[in-house]
């Protein structure tokens, strides 16, 4: 694929993604699969559990969710991903089957990267190797953080942290979209939808208002103070 | 270091460790640092937060804990590690400072591996590269599992899972050592020491007895049924 076909916004996503940020255009072009940029409609599958994995997906726009079919026939949400996130590095690099399914939650676009070719590149290019490792370790640390938060923080603190993460580039008082439904937010921070609603109500007096999937934070400073440990 | 100096038990630990299991003796010898096998007394430090990292530690015997000094002067337990676990891959491979300190919780022995040399080996040897990646991904998946459990399971279910993990190779009715103090177990499964004691008391009627740091499970089958989802 010709890298020049990527939009300016796509290139910004690539630059902010740890995995691809340090790659030269030539290196990046060598690992993009023939599919290149793929567009998905909401509810379409990027891949299904059990399929043989060769492709790593870097999300350029929109949201995707990973779900796993359980032995009992139920379906568990594993994680939600958005712009700049990479999916399926493990199975694609190790040449295994996808252990879960991935579905578009919104209309979305993703860049398809070839796992075996990335492995080749890691062996010939030290920067790509250390950068790929750094990307993996960043994921590990993010998960270690999640574990710490889930163990030691209240539901309110977890919700405040989630809202601050979602509004990182938003000004005080400016409306922003919550990335997904409230039941998914509840699942993500590990609580029930009922408890989540109660917590949103409590946060009103601290300047958080919501309207459907839109939210406003009066002063981020106030929220940051709520989760600081003294 | 001469690989022949490792005991039979050490070699078993190496074989069961994902990172080193697929390495030839020559490859392994090439990444073991001059220190080789290092012995530590309880409370001794393997490394301290802020030191420049070059060494990855593979624990051969005993327990170690990673703790982090917080801005407010307090000290957080990040994780506890034992036989077969690898420590500090991230900073040692990326050539950074250790982001936390590591201290022996018991008398212990560890094999010291050289980060930069392992990076070299990953580039020349495809098996070592994929095996190292597999080891990292296994850690990632373990953390994803932890996150799922913390979000969706009760304290009792988490404790039962922890006890089953600790007694994997123990027969029904046979006594085994809990790996660390009850306050550390409480921190690990994300509860208070008080709640942990209550939960241990509840588990008595399901055949779990404890005496100091020793525990017995009458029938593992009963515990497994308690955490199965239907």
UniProtKB/TrEMBL annotation, chains A, B:
Residues 19-139 form the Cyclic nucleotide-binding domain. CDD domains: CAP_ED (cd00038). GO terms for molecular function: DNA binding; DNA-binding transcription factor activity. PROSITE patterns: CNMP_BINDING_3, HTH_CRP_2. InterPro entries: cNMP-bd_dom (IPR000595), cNMP-bd_dom_sf (IPR018490), Env_Response_Regulators (IPR050397), HTH_CRP (IPR012318), RmlC-like_jellyroll (IPR014710), WH-like_DNA-bd_sf (IPR036388), WH_DNA-bd_sf (IPR036390). Residues 153-221 form the HTH crp-type domain. One of its GO terms (cellular component) is cytosol. The keyword Transcription applies. PANTHER family: CRP FAMILY TRANSCRIPTIONAL REGULATORY PROTEIN, REGULATORY PROTEIN YEIL. This is Cyclic nucleotide-binding protein.
């Amino acid at each position: 694929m010709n890298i020049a076909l990527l939009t300016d916004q796509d290139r910004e996503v690539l630059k902010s993604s740890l995995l691809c940020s340090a790659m030269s255009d030539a290196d990046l072009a060598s690992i993009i699969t023939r599919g290149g940029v793929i567009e998905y409609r909401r509810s379409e599958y990027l891949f299904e559990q059990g399929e043989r994995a060769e492709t790593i997906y870097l999300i350029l726009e929109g949201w995707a969710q990973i779900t796993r079919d359980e032995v009992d026939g139920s379906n568990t949400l594993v994680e939600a991903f958005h712009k700049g996130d990479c999916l399926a590095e493990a199975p694609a690099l190790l040449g295994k089957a996808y252990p879960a399914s991935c579905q578009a939650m919104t209309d979305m676009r993703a860049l398809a990267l070839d796992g075996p070719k990335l492995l080749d590149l890691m062996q010939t290019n030290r920067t790509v190797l250390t950068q790929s490792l750094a990307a993996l370790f960043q994921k590990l640390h993010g998960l270690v953080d999640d574990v710490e938060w889930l163990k030691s923080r209240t539901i309110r603190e977890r919700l405040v942290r989630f809202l601050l993460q979602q509004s990182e580039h938003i000004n005080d008082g400016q409306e922003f979209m919550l990335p997904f439904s409230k039941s998914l937010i509840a699942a993500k921070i590990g609580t029930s939808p009922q408890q989540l609603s109660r917590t949103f109500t409590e946060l009103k007096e601290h300047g958080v208002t919501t309207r459907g999937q839109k939210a406003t934070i009066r002063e981020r400073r106030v929220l940051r103070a709520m989760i600081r440990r003294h």
